[in-house]
UniProtKB/TrEMBL annotation, chain A:
Keyword Transmembrane: yes
Membrane listed as a keyword: yes
Classification via InterPro entries: Brnchd-chn_aa_trnsp_permease
Alphabetized UniProt keyword annotations: Membrane, Transmembrane, Transmembrane helix
Domain of life: Bacteria
Stretches that traverse the bilayer: 22-42, 48-73, 111-130, 142-166, 172-190, 222-239
Name of the protein in question: AzlC family ABC transporter permease
From TrEMBL, chain B:
Keywords from the UniProt entry: Membrane, Transmembrane, Transmembrane helix
Organism per entry: Tianweitania aestuarii
InterPro entries in UniProt: Brnchd-chn_aa_trnsp_AzlD
Protein name from the UniProt record: AzlD domain-containing protein
Residues spanning the membrane: 12-34, 46-66, 96-114
Superkingdom field: Bacteria
Any Pfam family: AzlD
Length: 245, 115
């Protein structure tokens, strides 16, 4: 109890630094490697250096950024691109809903939570949900600010450096960079699934995506997402009803 | 009104602000607003998670079958093999992400250097 009181008295800045240090962990390094792949993708799509760095800081959600660059490659209009990105980012809402009660201390202001919510993305969320219970309630916002801002700034630097250097790489290594993003998504998404409806939705989506890409190129992501997601949900519900009946 | 349709230096940044920042942070702010009001196990969230996941999975499928950059010049069968082997390794290693990535990359690179 005494140790806890001592921790409560420690300055917020120290907890900010602890959060920053938590960014340099295995999930943090995996995220960096997938931003390496993203930077190569953005350069191939002819998104400029500063636009790519800016996108990383201001969007800060790798799936959304990949969808956005995909819309740039496809030559989609601003409206269609915004719609596809918005639909790929709905999952941010439940993630934020889940983390807000963890972050909120006795005197946390609303504006602080709105500000910190910008840093919510798969990796910082997974790390925070694991580590926040060990942080005193009044220092959780400082800890998460350290974690989120360090991850974001580090990856902005990574993205900028890779953008400049990627052309100097041998072709095979460059190809391997483009493999990092899909592999990271595939495994981390599968692992974060809470009910098997999500896993089934993944299987449907991964097959429907390319099929819709050929059949309805302008709306491939939207149709694959809705058809795959709703289909998986209906099967999940029917299976549960049968079991409980 | 596409990303490359306007040569002004500021246009890419406006495009990213509207299609990127607005389209993501709006959901985050909604999450703060709703925080505590929705139960995390509520039924609507199961459907929302399923749709969001299928959408990102569609991106994964497209990145493998219709990749960009240097990956586009590699054989499609090799890419699918690498992805499946990586996923199998990930499962065998009790869902360790880094194992899946390393195995997929190793198979891809081995295939490319053997060609």
């Amino acid at each position: 109890m005494e140790a806890l009181n001592e921790a409560q008295d420690e300055p917020s800045f120290r907890w900010y630094l602890r959060g920053a240090r938590a960014a340099y962990s295995i999930p943090g390094f995996i995220l960096m490697s997938s931003f390496v792949g993203f930077s190569a993708l953005a350069k191939a799509a002819d998104v400029g250096l500063w636009a790519t760095v800016f996108m990383t800081g201001i969007v800060w959600a790798l799936p959304a950024q990949v969808v956005l660059v995909g819309a740039v490659i496809a030559g989609n209009s601003l409206g269609a691109a915004a719609l596809a990105v918005a639909l790929s980012s709905v999952r941010l809402t439940p993630m934020v809903v889940a983390i807000v009660p963890e972050l909120r201390g006795p005197r946390t202001r609303g504006i602080t939570l709105y500000f910190l919510s910008h840093f919510v993305a798969v990796t910082s969320w997974v790390l925070a949900m694991a580590k926040l219970p060990d942080v005193p309630a009044s220092r959780r916002t400082a800890f998460y600010f350290g974690l989120g801002s360090t991850l974001t700034l580090t990856n902005m630097i990574v993205v900028g450096c890779v953008y400049v250097l990627v052309d100097a790489l041998p072709r095979e290594l460059s190809a391997a960079l483009f493999m990092l993003t899909p592999m990271y998504f595939l495994t981390s998404l599968w692992g974060s699934a809470r009910e098997w409806a999500t896993n089934l939705a993944m299987v449907f989506g991964i097959v429907l995506g390319p099929v819709c890409h050929v059949l309805v190129p302008s709306f491939d992501l939207l149709i694959a997402g809705f058809a795959g997601g709703i289909g998986a949900y209906v099967i999940y519900r029917l299976a549960h009803r049968r079991r409980s009946a | 009104m596409t990303f490359h349709s306007n040569d002004a230096w500021w246009w890419p940044f406006v495009f990213i602000l509207v299609a990127g920042w607005l389209a993501t942070d709006a959901w985050r702010y909604l999450g703060v607003y709703l925080g505590g009001r929705i139960r995390d196990d509520s039924e609507v969230l199961v459907l929302v998670r399923a749709i969001a996941t299928a959408l990102v999975a569609a991106v994964i499928g497209n990145l493998i079958l219709f990749p960009s950059g240097e990956l586009a010049s590699t054989p499609v069968a090799l890419r699918i093999e690498a992805e499946i082997a990586g996923f199998a390794a990930y499962q065998l290693a009790r869902k360790t992400v880094v194992v899946g990535i390393i195995v997929a990359e190793a198979i891809l690179l081995a295939g490319l250097y053997a060609l």
